[in-house]
Write a structure and sequence with these properties.
heterodimer; A: about 400 residues; alpha/beta; Aspartate Aminotransferase, domain 1; Aspartate Aminotransferase, domain 2; 2 domains; seven-stranded mixed beta sheet; four-stranded antiparallel beta sheet; 11 helices; about 35% helix; about 15% strand; globular; B: about 140 residues; alpha+beta; Sufe protein. Chain: A; 6 helices
C-alpha cells in the first residue's frame, strides 16, 4: 500500500509519539492542568510549553493560542464567535461575511448556518449575509476581488491559506493589511498551510487563524485557534463552562494531545525547509511522470500561482472516476469521484473551478508527506499510468 | 491486479471498496475486453448507454452457424458496468439469437449481486443485448 493521502491526515511522527507517552501512561502526568496542586502545575507547564511551540511555528505569542478539538471547531468558533460578539453590539444591523466557494465544508456550512439562523444579539436577531466568491479557473481569489465584495456591513472575511483539494495558495499575506486598513476582520483556515509554508503572524495582520494537529504529524482531536491580542479579536464562546482558554473555549484540557500538537509543531518548525524541499521535489516528479499520459489536466495553479508543496490534483480525461479509483487499490489517494465521498457528489471545489462533473469525477488528489519516497512515487505513477491506459482502451468512447 | 481465483483474504485486501465478489472478479481481470478487428466475419455489435451515469457499453458477438462463438465488450463506466459487459459475453457464448432473447435481468443482477442503486447498469446490459439482436436481425435480412 502506498499512502499518498497526507492532506487527509498524517501518521504521528515518532518524535511526537515519544513526547506524548509520559502523558498517557497510567503512572504519567495525568492531573488536570487547571488544578492548583503540584501534579496540576506540572500538567499546566506541559500545556504552556506546547502553546509556545504552536505559537512559534506561526510567529504568534503563546497567549494568542486557544486550544480546540481541531480545525473544524476552530473555524466554527472563529466565524460564529466573531459574529455573535459583534451582533451583541446594538449599533450593527445586517452582518456580512465574504468567503470563497472553495473553502472547506466546515467554513461553508458554518456560513450557511449563520445565514439561516442570523445572530441573536441584545437588540434581537440580526440577519447574516454571505458572499461566496467564485475563484478563477486556476483556483485563485485575488485580494482585489475580496476588496470589491466588501460593503459597509462587512464584518469578516474568511479565506483559506492553502486549499485542501488543489493546494492553491491564496495571497492572504497581501490581503491581510488591506483588510486591516479597512477595519474588516480576517479569518484564515491554515490547516493545510501550517508546517508546509512559512507563516509569520508577527508581520501578517491576520486576526483569526485555524490550525489542526493531525495534518502536521500530530494526534487527531486537537487543534487551535489563533486569536490576535493586539488589536484584540473578540469572540463569543461556543462552548460554555469552566471558563478555560480565557473564557473562549471551556472544557478540561487534553494534556496528552496538546503536548502532541506542541511537539508536532516544534518538529514542523525545525524541519519546515527540509520537508518542503523533499516533498515538493517528489510532487514535481510525480506530475512530470504523469504527463507521459496524453490528456491529463492539473487542477489548480498555473503560471505564477503558488501551490503548496504536498499537493497534486489531476483529472484524467476519458476515464470514469469510480473505476479509476477502484482500479488503484494499492494506492491510498483521495478521489474526486462522487462514489468515494460521503456526499455522493463530485468535488464542489473542482466544479467551482469550472470542471464539468465528468472531469471532476475522474480526478485524483495525491498528497505527499515526510515518509514518501522516490520509489513510492515511481510505483504510484506507474500504476496510475497503467490503469488509466487500460480504462481508456476499454472505453468505446476513447479515441487516442 | 489479482487473478480470477483470488482467496477471500486476498480479495478483501485488494477490494477495499466492498464491491461484490463477482463484480470485483470481472472488473479486476475482465476476459474478452476489447473489440474484434474491423471486418471480422460474423460479428454483430450492440451499444447502449445509461443517462443515469453517462455510462456506455458496447458488445460484439461473433456468430458461427447461428450460435455465438466468441465475443468482446468495451465499457465506459463504473466497475459494475464493466462487470456487466464481461458477464454478458461469457453468458452469450454458445447461445443462439433466440436464446439471447431469453436474457433475464433478475439472473444478471442476481449473479453479479448488483445492488438496487446500480440496477441501471444491468438495464444498460439488457439494452445492449437488445440493440445487438436488432442489428443481428437486420444483418440477416
Amino acid at each position: 500500500m502506498i499512502y499518498l493521502d497526507y492532506a487527509a491526515t498524517t501518521p504521528l511522527d515518532a518524535r511526537v509519539f515519544e513526547a506524548m507517552l509520559p502523558y498517557l501512561r497510567p503512572d504519567g502526568v495525568f492531573a488536570n492542568p487547571a488544578s492548583t496542586h503540584g501534579p496540576g502545575f506540572k500538567a499546566r507547564a506541559a500545556v504552556e510549553k506546547a502553546r509556545a511551540q504552536v505559537a512559534a511555528l506561526i510567529g504568534a505569542e503563546p497567549g494568542e493560542i486557544v486550544w480546540t478539538s481541531g480545525a473544524t471547531e476552530s473555524n466554527n468558533l472563529a466565524l460564529k464567535g466573531a459574529l455573535e460578539f459583534r451582533g451583541a453590539a446594538p449599533a450593527s444591523k445586517t452582518l456580512h461575511i465574504v468567503t470563497s466557494r472553495t473553502e472547506h465544508k466546515c467554513v461553508l456550512d458554518t456560513c450557511r448556518y449563520l445565514e439561516a439562523q442570523g445572530v441573536s444579539g441584545r437588540s434581537g436577531g440580526q440577519p447574516v449575509r454571505v458572499t461566496y466568491l467564485k475563484p478563477s479557473a486556476n483556483g485563485v481569489v485575488t485580494p482585489e476581488e475580496v476588496l470589491a465584495a466588501l460593503t459597509p456591513e462587512t464584518l469578516l472575511v474568511s479565506l483559506m491559506w492553502v486549499n485542501n483539494e488543489i493546494g492553491v495558495v491564496q495571497e492572504v499575506e497581501r490581503l491581510a493589511p488591506m483588510l486591516r486598513e479597512r477595519g474588516v476582520l480576517l479569518h484564515v483556515d491554515a490547516a493545510q498551510a501550517a508546517g508546509k509554508l512559512p507563516i509569520d503572524l508577527g508581520r501578517t495582520p491576520i486576526d483569526l487563524l485555524s490550525l489542526s494537529a493531525h495534518k502536521v504529524y500530530g494526534p487527531k482531536g486537537i487543534g487551535a485557534l489563533f486569536v490576535r491580542r493586539r488589536p484584540r479579536a473578540r469572540l463569543n464562546p461556543q462552548m460554555h463552562g469552566g471558563g478555560h482558554e480565557q473564557g473562549m473555549r471551556s472544557g478540561t484540557l487534553a494534556t496528552h494531545q496538546i503536548v502532541g500538537m506542541g511537539a508536532a509543531f516544534d518538529v514542523a518548525r525545525t524541519d519546515l525547509a527540509a520537508d518542503a524541499a523533499h516533498i515538493g521535489g517528489l510532487r514535481d516528479a510525480l506530475w512530470s511522470r504523469l504527463q507521459a499520459l496524453p490528456r491529463v489536466q492539473r487542477n489548480g495553479g498555473g503560471e505564477g500561482i503558488a501551490i503548496a508543496p504536498h499537493l497534486l490534483n489531476v483529472s484524467f480525461e476519458g476515464v470514469e472516476g469510480e473505476s479509476l479509483r477502484a482500479s488503484l487499490p494499492e494506492l491510498a489517494v483521495s478521489s474526486g469521484s462522487a462514489c468515494s465521498s460521503a456526499t455522493q457528489e463530485p468535488s464542489y471545489v473542482l466544479r467551482a473551478l469550472g470542471r464539468d462533473d465528468e472531469l471532476a469525477n475522474a480526478s485524483l488528489r495525491f498528497s505527499l508527506g515526510r515518509a514518501t519516497t522516490a520509489a513510492d512515487i515511481e510505483r504510484a505513477a506507474g500504476l496510475v499510468i497503467q490503469q488509466v491506459q487500460w480504462l481508456r482502451e476499454l472505453s468505446p468512447l476513447w479515441a487516442a | 491486479m489479482g487473478g480470477l481465483n483470488m482467496e477471500a483474504a486476498e480479495m478483501e485486501m485488494t477490494n477495499p471498496f466492498a464491491y461484490s465478489a463477482p463484480i470485483w472478479q470481472r472488473f479486476s481481470a475482465p476476459f474478452r475486453a476489447g473489440r474484434f478487428a474491423d471486418g471480422t466475419a460474423g460479428v454483430v455489435s450492440g451499444q447502449a448507454g445509461t443517462p443515469a451515469a453517462r455510462s456506455v457499453l458496447k458488445l460484439q458477438l461473433q456468430f458461427v452457424a447461428g450460435r455465438v462463438a466468441d465475443g468482446r465488450f468495451q465499457a465506459y463506466g463504473c466497475p459494475t458496468s464493466i462487470a456487466v459487459g464481461a458477464w454478458l459475453v461469457e453468458w452469450a457464448i454458445g447461445k443462439s439469437a433466440a436464446e439471447l432473447r431469453g436474457l433475464s435481468l433478475a439472473e444478471l443482477r442476481g449473479t453479479l449481486e448488483i445492488a438496487d442503486d446500480r440496477a441501471h447498469c444491468a438495464v444498460m446490459g439488457e439494452d445492449a443485448v437488445l440493440a445487438l439482436l436488432s442489428q443481428y436481425q437486420e444483418s440477416r435480412i
